[in-house]
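User: I'm putting together a teaching handout on how multi-component assemblies are represented. Below are the sequence lines for each component of a complex, exactly as they appear in our records. Could you produce the 3D structure of the whole assembly as structure tokens, so the students can see both representations side by side? Please keep the chain order the same as the input.
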Amino acid sequence: MSGKTAIKHNMTLDERVTYLKEKAREARLHVLDMVYTAQSGHIGGSFSVAEIMAALYFDILRIDPKRPEWPERDRFILSKGHVCPILYACLGMRGYFPIETLKTLRQFGSILQGHPVIKTPGVDMSTGSLGMGFGIAAGMALNAKLLGARHTVYALLGDGECNEGMVWEVCQTAAKYKLNNLVAIVDRNGMQNDGFSDEIMPIDPLDKRFEAFNWRVITVDGHNLHEVIPAIEDARDCQDGPCCVLALTTKGKGVSFMENTQHWHGKAPTKDQYEQAIEELSRS
Amino acid sequence: MDAFALKKAKVPTRLACAERMKEYGDIDSDFVVFDNDIGYSTYSYLFGDRFPARYFNLGIAEVGTMATAAGMSAEGRVSVVCGYGVFLTMRAIEAVRSFVCYPNLNVKIMSSHGGVTAAIDGVTHQATEDISAMITLPNMKVLVPSDPVSAARCFETAVKTPGPVFVRLMRDPLFDLYSDSDQFPLGGSKQIRSGDDVTIVTYGDIVFQTIEAAEILARQGVESEVIDAYSLKPYDKEAILKSVSKTGCLVVAENHQARNGFAYELSNLLLKETPVPFENLGFQDTFAESGDYPSLLKKYGLSAEHIAKAALDVVGRRR
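Assistant: Of course. Below is the structure of the complete assembly, with chains in the same order as your input.
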């Protein structure tokens, strides 16, 4: 097996957690820089998935930055495409493109578009319209089944995204075809663009909803890597059918004034806010 | 050519296309087919029965299906999505736009019940804005066969053409027009009658109304050149301009909204290249209704008589 993950294979869970915590912190700093430079982008939802993304890109995903098109690689679909700053940060840190590229986010001529596009090295498919990426992931998983391929397709969804009717169309499809090579990770940060999801459109019990569609559900603290890593691996190894990791998270996690407020869904920080955020992330 | 001399087609274009798709499944073992619980109407079940592992009926869920097909094709595979035009081009249009056309993927849309050929089903099942939507999307190619032979050929053209392709099909059988040796490459057209007095461009089912209109006109001493523009995007600009440069006037007739359809495309071309008297026939900012197909064409201005009248009008306006 050629170098697929960033970690060493003999690490204990504790060592992996320590390593990935640092990667999540670095990724958050990159996100902050990118959005501050662009003065546009989605910090809150990027921060809520930082540990999940670190676990995927620096540990679990079988990928090779030198061969972005490697057919046997795992696929990752960022269905909540607006949080692409964290995806780009991970791709840059893994070496899919020079790390300096991150500063060009959303700018004219940049390979880092406002929402992910398939042309960017490491991006498996364009996303950004909520719900669509999940369907795309199901199509990729179906294709893998047809080929008899053994890779896994991961889709990362937001909880607000689950308002979309098509999410449940895709759940039906995945259950019908017993797509045990499809893993959905839902970022349950409890917030969406306009406010708390319980107020905008209540979706609980989200775990029961997925279960009712014949999915297996594993609920975890999405910031606790001791829970996140085994849960995603468990979902990956689940043989019976599709599996969902329901990650309970905090929007804006890591910067005190950004946590749990909708104001940091899609806002760029001022200079003062940027400096304070750097300070908080640097000592975390 | 007299419309009444044409042989009544045994099968509708939707079935001819599906039969070819089934046969083609043996030739090309890669492509897959999706449907939305109307497999017995699109006849995609023919493919499904023969190739069950390559056939995905995802239930009544057009948006999820289009995204799933996009995912399949993002992996390099050709996906064919079968369904009714109004659902595929309206309900699922965002998936078509952003995740099929934008990444330029190999998704082929076999779209039945185009125009009011689904006459008796009523407005909810009539796709009268589909062409407008599909020709507007970057990277999308659009084909509209008129008879069983062209439908089978257009299926092949769609599968062999890289990127997204939309094929508009009909619910009911009309006439046989083409022979097995006829080819239907992307960007082509068929001149099915030549004449010096007026050019009439049409496609799909209205080809047959136009053939009849040409007979009406001939009896009045007006010779029309009838072009079946089966490839709407890209279209055969050269053939159309050549004909118009000869006749000096153009009528476009289509089973579609008069606004923003293929006629608007050609009116734009004429304005830029060679402004000539022009008329277009289609639904005049209105929906149709349930009823038999000939009655709808008469009521909404798409019958042979309407086309002949429009042709006389542009001939009269030509200086």
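A couple of points students might notice: Chain B touches chain A at residues 32, 53-54, 56, 58-59, 61, 63-75, 77, 79, 94-95, 98-99, 102-103 (CB under 8 Å). The domain at 190-317 of chain B is CATH 3.40.50.920 (Rossmann fold).
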